[in-house]
Predict the 3D structure of the following.
Amino acid sequence: MTVKYIHLRRRDPFWGHLEPRGGITVAYDVIDGNVQYAWSQCSLKDHYNRAIGRAVSSGRLAASKNVRSFPKKEGVNVVEQILLNHDE
């Protein structure tokens, strides 16, 4: 299993820098043509920590806890597929 990660954070609307609080980490893997992913979300009250986000989201993926899955489309970026399919 080759797990990859996406880190999503908010940007300050005026200055454009990354906000120190809140964020989402997505752990994903492509297995037999299907994308499986799980995520962790940091509260807006807490400072974002990539290492903690990776540990929580990969732990959920490995334990099949709160995992979503969909078929991988050829020629389409996996990250775009995850972001577009997340609300479905």
Summary: The beta strands are 4-8, 21-31, 34-47, 68-71. The chain has a mean pLDDT of 89.
